[in-house]
Design a protein that fits this description.
Blueprint: H1 3-7, E1 14-19, E2 25-30, H2 36-45, E3 63-67, E4 70-71, E5 88-95, H3 110-113
Parallel strand pairs: 1-5
Antiparallel strand pairs: 1-2, 3-4, 3-5
Length: 127
Amino acid sequence: MTAAQRRNVPSDKVNLRLILVSGNRADFLVSPSDSVAAVVRHVFDNWPKEWSGEMKVSICDSLRLIYLGRFLKGSLTLSALNLPLGKTTVMHLVVRERVPGEGSSHGTLERDKQRPEGGGCDCCVIL
């Protein structure tokens, strides 16, 4: 997206500015009715040339969007986030095979499952 296009975001769209860990960024024009999964697929299919040496992404499902410090679930629509239409919204894009809390009904991480039975402490004492 050119600078001129960034200034003229259609009133029914959201300009999504995605920032990588390296600080590189790219803009994508999306619809508020798009799901996070659809946005991630669009980014994967339209991977910016400037990013080709940055991240090694082999599958779309390993890309994650972060907005206001939270990993966004694929089924969530952008309209549910109340993003301002006709404006630019900044999100972070990272590669993660698994987000903490996914795949577990208790929200535990894999390393918690490796703790020996009866060993370890599940509390914190602050003196």
